[in-house]
Each structure stands twice: as C-alpha cells, then as structure tokens.
C-alpha cells in the first residue's frame, strides 16, 4: 500500500546534534590496486566472507565515542573461493577470523567508520570503495545532514555509504561542522557529534583532496565536467529546467541521481519531484487506500507531490552549468529574481485551484505520445478556457496533501510554491480541446455589459429571454414533482443561418457571466449508444462548470419521429431523457426543421423564431461589428451604414466581412475604412456567383 504524507518537512536541524572526528588516510583518487596480492596461508586464516560484515553492537549512543578510522580490503580469494577482508596494504588480519553473524565480538565496533576497498576479481577493473559507519554519533550526523536519500536507510545494519555521495554532501558537512563548532556551550552529545563530523571531513579532505579542489575550482567559474556532475546532483537540491509542454521555467526538488552506462555512452537518470494538482478520486483510487484522516476539498482536488525524471546525457570536456538541461537553481545567472518569479507564479497557480472560467492568450499543448519522453503538439490559443483537470490524469503520485480554493487557507511554504508546476489544465471553449496551459498567460475575463442590448430581437422577445435567464440564474427552486426532473431552462432558437441564433446564446452567457459550452449536433454521434454517452459527458461537465449549453443544429433530434426510422427514434428518445433531467440553461438551434416532435413541444420553455434580417436589422449589426473592429463612432455615418445594409448578406457574413476588412487594413498599415469593407464584400459576392455557376442545378 502506498503511503501519502504531509507536505510539511521535518526540521532541518537535528533533534540530537551530530558530528565526529577520525584519522587521516591515503588518497583514494589514485588508489594502489596491488593490495589484492595475498598468499594462500593468509587465505586459510581468513574466514570472513562478503556476507559476514560486522554489525553494530547497540543502537544506543556510546558514552565514549570513538574517532578512529579503519581501512580494510574486501577481496576474492581464489584459493578458498570466498570474499574476505584484510587490512588495506597488509596481509590477512587475524582479527577478521570470526563467524559472520557474531555481533557481540564486532572487531570494528571501536571505530568511527571503516573504509572498505573492494578488490575486483578481474585485475583490469578498478577497485570500489564504501564507508561503513560504526559510530552511532556519525550515523546521527549523516542522518541529520543528508536526511532522506533514496536507497539509503538510517536503520540499516551495516550502514554503508558511497564516498562519492559523501563528497557531494561535503559542503553541507562543512556547514554543519561550523555551526556546532560555533556553539559556546555544546552538550556532551554535541561535542561527540563535532568529533565525528571532524573525522569524516578529515577523511574526505585527505583521500579526495584533488577531487574537492577540482569541484571548487570549476563551480566557482560556473562550470562542470561529466565525471564531477554528481557533485551538483545532491538530494533535495532545487533544480531549474524547462517545462516540456509550456517551455516555462520549472523548479524540481532532486530525490536521486543514478549513473547509467549504455553500450556507447552514459547518462544520469535524475528522479525529481514537483507539486501539482491531483484528481483525488481518479488518481488516488488507482494508487491504493489513503489515510482516513486526509481531508478532501471541493471536487476531490488536492495538491500533491508528483514524480518526474530528467536525463542528463554524457558530454565531453567542460561546460557551463547553466547550459545543462537541468541544473541547481543557485547557478542561475539571476537566481534571486528567478526564485521570486517562481514563488509569485506559485501563488497564482494555487489561486487557480478548482474550476475557473478565465481568458487565455498564449501557447497550448497536448501530448501526442506518452512514455518517459513525451512529445507535444503546440499551437496558439486565444480563447476563453475552463481551468479544470478534466480527463487529464497523473499516475505517478508520490505524496498528497489537502488543498483549499483560496490561497490564504493553504499552509504552503515559499519553497513549495516555488516547486509548483507552470502547467494549468483546461478546456479551450473555442477549440474544444483539453490542453496543458501556461499559468502565466491566464487573464481575467472582460465581460461585455452591452451584449444583450446589441441583440437584434424585438424588444418584447429580448425582455422575455432576459427575464427567463435571470430567473433561472437566481435558482428560484421551482422543480418538477419528480426530483431532478424538469428543473432546467430549454430555449429553442429556430430560423435560417446567420440571423443571430448563436449570438443570442453568446449574449445570454455574457449577461449572466457564465461560460458557454457549444456542442455541434453532429458531434453527438449517429447511434443511440454514442449519443447517450456524449450527452452524459456534456451535461456532467456543464453542471460542474455551471455553464450554458448550446447544441447547434439540433434538427435531427427535434424533428418529428416516424414509424420507419427506428435508429433515429432511439436517438431522439435518448436526447429527450437527457434534456428532461438537465438542470442548467440549454439552447437548441435549428435551421430547416419541418415539424417539431410533440414530445419536445412540452419540454421547450420558450421558442424564438428568427427571420431573415431586415435592412434596419442589418444596419444595427453592421454598426455593432464595425465599432468592435475599432472604427470611430464619428466615421459611422448613416449614409455609410445604409450602403452596407443594402447588401444581401446575413449576420454571420457581416461578421466575417468585417474581420476580413480589418485584416486587410492592418496588412496595409491603414485605418479601417469603407473602401476596405466594400473591397471585401465585392470579393465575397464574386465567389458566391462563381460557386453558383458551377453548382449542379
């Protein structure tokens, strides 16, 4: 069962301060590999195999801590065909002659730590090293300084740590040592810890003197080589990289880095974590049960840690650290400003938790391939969007904490804000796509307060529509005798194309400040099963968003059923059932319907018939679109508008002509004038005549 933890971290300082001292040693940067030569007599004396590593005698801290350091070789005896120990640079040691599991006579118990050099069986291979921690004080020091390291348990016996990992943490051990040393009146435990960390530092600064010097010299100039890259990949380091879908800066906390060798090269597999929104019910349900005390938030949304990976491929020579695909944030050219921007962005990201109706202008993306290296399709978005995780899912959750909808209610640190993703998940209402969006490009919606007034409808009908919508928006509570049935508002808009049906739904959306979710009648499918599933999805999403739904060109569902078309009858029955139980505002537009199905007549609250636009109506539409395109009121004289209103075009064509004329003016670096509009209309009419000439009669 996966365990979910709190985002709050334990204190960075030890509950029991720890540090230790030890003896100096030979330089491991250039180790003598000839120490594996042992005679058969020595082999006969040594009985300690590789599995017989000495273990600690007690978990309690000793009263008299040791600062001694021991060095041994772990080698393979070809005579006895076993792995054995001996003092480094000497023959087999008699003290090693004991049984593997005898913890009461641990010959290493008197040492602070033991440096074990493993001599490979193949003389062409290099020896490897490990540090076996024996001092309980040094164990506590390492635990406090290194904290959580993947693959390392502080309860392990024996506790073995790679010298390379210790070298990577050398600056942290140095800082820890200085803090303990600066204490005016240290406790006995603190003095013991100081001795222990001193011993460890002496070992590192002796055996790895040249390595530490190279690291200091390179990093001081913002450079690194691949063989020393491990020195930058310290667990809990904040890395900066680029978000694969948005390209925005992304901060990650490093958990582990593993060097992987391939046939032709090598790379570091860097496992990191960041903070993202998680769909509690969908994501966690696949991960295992969750602690019953974990609070849920509205819609099951939580904030949690998610895992990600970065691959750092081997490179030659010396490179700038800031040129790596991921590198420590401290090496950013302006790390302080970058941190500030990340924290500020994190606050905005948290404020977008839950469902939000916003405006987005920028790049959007969706994944076209999965796996470790996702590929994204990216394009420009200029649309209102619904911020909602929708059907996007994270399966790599590693930790969850509750989240609220208001940032002030979330106990989240600046570092955690810095680790939030730049990605916000949303649905583009214009493009009808679920996308990954950049939080930086999200804006508040500027509602049009004059949208309803600009509707080309008789005053009485416009007032009726406005009253019905406002009454339903106020949720007066009138319902059917059957709970949940007949609680919606169904409005049918019927008439020829381009006379303002869709515009009426858009104006209603603007008036009540709700999103408009447009679905084409053809998008619902041609089979009853598909229509049922699609309508269920549409109405569920619309309910969650509190959106107005517009089903465009719904003729096939509203027209009278016949005895001979059983397939369409089944589709109509499904449509009727969903409409009956939808509790929101629903617009249905139809163009050429001959006769309404009687079952629908009783379910439609109001039907508005749109006719071809009169000259006066077209003049009103022209004026509205030209003003929106940026033409000054003084330039819109009645004579000009009357000339345009004489053209035989509908409202949609007026909108398209205005947009095309505006683009034409912009391309010529000119202000929009009548000449641009007339040029566009002439081109449209010429195309219509040519199309009519070639169309079959």
From TrEMBL:
GO molecular function: ATP binding; ATP hydrolysis activity
Annotated InterPro entries: AAA+_ATPase (IPR003593), ATPase_AAA_core (IPR003959), DUF7025 (IPR054289), P-loop_NTPase (IPR027417)
UniProt keyword annotation of Transmembrane present: no
SUPFAM superfamilies: P-loop containing nucleoside triphosphate hydrolases
Family annotation (Gene3D superfamilies): P-loop containing nucleotide triphosphate hydrolases
One Pfam family matching this protein: AAA
Region (Disordered): 1-51
Highest taxon above the source species: Eukaryota
Domain called AAA+ ATPase: residue spans: 487-616
Biased composition range(s): Low complexity: 29-40
Transmembrane segments: none
UniProt entry keywords in alphabetical sequence: Hydrolase
Protein known as: Nucleoside triphosphate hydrolase protein
Organism whose genome encodes this protein: Wolfiporia cocos (strain MD-104)
């Amino acid at each position: 069962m996966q365990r979910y933890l709190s985002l709050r971290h334990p204190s960075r300082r030890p509950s029991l301060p720890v540090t230790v001292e030890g003896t100096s040693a030979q330089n491991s940067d250039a180790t003598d590999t000839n120490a594996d030569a042992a005679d058969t007599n020595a082999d006969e004396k040594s009985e300690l195999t590789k599995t017989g590593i000495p273990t600690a005698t007690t978990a309690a801290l000793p009263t008299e801590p040791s600062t001694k350091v021991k060095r041994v070789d772990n080698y393979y005896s070809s005579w006895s065909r076993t792995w054995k120990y001996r003092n480094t640079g000497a023959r087999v040691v008699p003290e090693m002659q004991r049984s593997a599991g005898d913890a009461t006579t641990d010959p290493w118990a008197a040492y602070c730590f033991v440096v074990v050099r493993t001599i490979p069986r193949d003389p062409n291979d290099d020896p490897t090293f490990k540090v076996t921690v024996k001092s309980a004080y040094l164990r506590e020091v390492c635990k406090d300084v290194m904290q959580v390291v993947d693959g390392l348990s502080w309860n392990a016996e024996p506790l073995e740590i790679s010298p390379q990992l210790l070298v990577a943490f050398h600056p942290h051990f140095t800082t820890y040592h200085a803090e303990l040393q600066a204490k005016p009146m240290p406790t006995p435990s603190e003095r013991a810890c100081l001795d222990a960390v001193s011993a460890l530092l002496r070992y590192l600064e002796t055996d790895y003197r040249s390595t530490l010097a190279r690291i200091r010299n390179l990093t001081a100039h913002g450079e690194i080589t691949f063989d020393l890259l491990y020195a930058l990949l310290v667990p809990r380091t904040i890395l900066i990289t680029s978000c694969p879908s948005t390209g925005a800066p992304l901060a990650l906390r490093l958990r582990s880095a593993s060097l992987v060798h391939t046939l032709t090269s090598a790379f570091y597999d860097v496992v990191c974590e960041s903070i993202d929104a998680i769909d509690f019910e969908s994501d966690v349900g696949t991960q295992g049960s969750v602690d019953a005390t974990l609070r849920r938030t509205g819609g099951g949304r939580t904030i949690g840690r998610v895992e990600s990976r970065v691959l750092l491929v081997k490179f030659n020579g010396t490179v700038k650290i800031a040129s790596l695909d991921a590198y420590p944030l401290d090496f950013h050219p302006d790390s302080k400003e970058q941190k500030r921007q990340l924290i500020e962005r994190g606050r905005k990201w948290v404020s977008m938790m839950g469902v939000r109706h916003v405006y987005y202008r920028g790049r959007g993306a969706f994944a076209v391939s999965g796996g470790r290296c996702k590929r994204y399709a990216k394009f420009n978005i200029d649309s209102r969007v619904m911020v909602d995780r929708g059907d996007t899912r994270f399966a790599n959750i590693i930790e969850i904490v509750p989240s609220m909808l208001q940032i002030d209610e979330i106990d989240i640190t600046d570092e955690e804000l810095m680790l939030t993703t730049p990605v916000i998940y949303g649905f583009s209402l214009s493009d009808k796509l679920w996308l990954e969006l950049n939080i930086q490009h999200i804006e508040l919606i500027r509602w049009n307060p004059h949208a309803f007034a600009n509707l080309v409808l008789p005053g009485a009908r416009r007032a009726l529509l406005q009253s019905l919508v406002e009454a339903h928006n106020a949720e007066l509570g009138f319902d059917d005798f059957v709970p949940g049935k007949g609680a919606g508002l169904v409005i049918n808009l019927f008439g020829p194309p381009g006379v303002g049906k869709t515009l009426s739904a858009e104006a209603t959306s603007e008036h009540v400040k709700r999103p408009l979710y447009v679905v084409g009648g053809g998008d619902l499918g041609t089979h009853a099963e598909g229509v049922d599933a699609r309508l269920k999805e549409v109405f569920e999403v619309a309910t969650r968003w509190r959106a107005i739904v517009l089903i465009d060109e719904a003729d096939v569902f509203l027209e009278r059923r016949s005895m001979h078309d059983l397939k369409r009858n089944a589709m109509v029955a499904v449509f009727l059932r969903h409409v009956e139980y939808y509790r929101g505002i629903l617009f249905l537009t139809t163009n050429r319907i001959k006769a309404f199905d009687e079952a629908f007549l009783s379910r439609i609250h109001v039907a508005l018939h749109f006719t071809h636009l009169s000259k006066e109506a077209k003049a009103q539409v022209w004026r509205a679109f030209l003003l929106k395109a940026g033409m000054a009121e003084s330039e819109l004289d009645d004579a000009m508008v009357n000339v345009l209103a004489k053209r035989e075009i509908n409202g949609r064509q007026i909108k398209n002509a205005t947009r095309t004329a505006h683009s034409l003016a912009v391309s010529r670096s000119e202000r929009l004038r009548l000449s641009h509009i007339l040029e566009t209309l002439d081109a449209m009419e010429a195309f219509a005549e040519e199309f009519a000439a070639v169309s079959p009669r």
